[in-house]
Write a structure and sequence with these properties.
0% strand; cobalamin biosynthesis; single chain; CobS; transferase; EC 2.7.8.26; 263 residues; mainly alpha; globular
Length: 263
């Protein structure tokens, strides 16, 4: 249990802006536990997001536009922009339309190109639109969606990490991948079943949450195929881009549900 807790704290250090001043061990045992705790990291992020939105929406005089904007900002600042950096680097590499080796070189370049800038503008603009319109009529299931999106995206990240070969033997992705095997993912279905059970207890709209899980699964298979085709495997940047892309598609799904199902 101590290793699991330290693994979770490692995730907070690497993937959030939450200050963790502890000096944590980076051996294989603790990194393996960190990988197992990826979905819990996403769930914590989701709980923070829904709590902030609830406070802004229900307990302050802020307009809905302001509440949605503050939630949007929270999705950026809580992660410290680490996955957004991966999204920009992967976009620069992909839109260069070069071979895999050249794309990996472009991702290593600390400079951001025009495609990276354009892609981040599109990503964040779309996310704000989806958040704003999806929360116009807040229902109980809306808060479940807010919590579930980062939970699912971090689950996708963990599965990609351990089921897709590494494109290079350096970087953050390779560090975590070398510490764990796909067998450690057995706990992910347990998390998912626990999340679904909680949803069923709290809300009757569990079928909508099931649809969100189905969409996340489709994103996983898409990312697995394209990571190998476009980049020769996964890197830290590819994983970050996968997290951001998955969350964008999930928010778009919630947005469409708002119009055509929940409306």
């Amino acid at each position: 249990m101590r290793r699991f807790i330290k693994g979770f704290l490692i995730n907070l250090q690497f993937f959030t802006a939450i200050p963790i001043s502890l000096e944590l061990p980076m051996d294989k045992q603790h990194l393996r536990k960190a990988v197992q705790a990826f979905p819990l990291l996403g769930l914590l992020q989701g709980v923070i997001y829904l709590s902030l939105f609830y406070v802004f929406q229900e307990l302050t005089p802020f307009s809905h536009l302001a509440s949605a904007f503050l939630l949007w900002l929270a999705t950026i600042f809580l992660t410290g922009g680490i996955h957004l950096d991966g999204w920009m680097d992967a976009s620069d590499a992909y839109f260069a339309y070069q071979d895999q080796e050249k794309r990996l070189e472009i991702m290593k370049d600390p400079r951001t190109g025009a495609f990276g800038v354009l892609s981040i503008i599109v990503l964040l603009s779309c996310r704000f639109l989806f958040i704003y319109e999806s929360t116009l009529n807040v229902e109980y299931v809306t808060y479940i969606f807010i919590a579930g999106i980062p939970f699912l995206s971090k689950s996708v990240m963990g599965v990609l990490l351990l089921t897709v070969k590494s494109a290079k033997n350096e970087g953050l992705g390779s560090l975590f991948q070398s510490a764990a095997k796909p067998q450690v993912l057995w706990i992910y279905p347990v998390y998912l079943l626990g999340f679904l059970f909680l949803v069923i207890l709290l809300n009757k709209e569990f079928l909508l949450v099931g649809l969100l899980i189905l969409v996340a699964t489709c994103c996983l298979y898409f990312c697995r195929r394209k990571a190998v085709k476009w980049f020769g495997g996964i890197t830290g940047d590819v994983l970050g881009a996968s997290v951001e892309g998955t969350e964008l598609i999930l928010w778009m799904t919630v947005w469409l549900l708002h119009y055509f199902v929940m409306g």
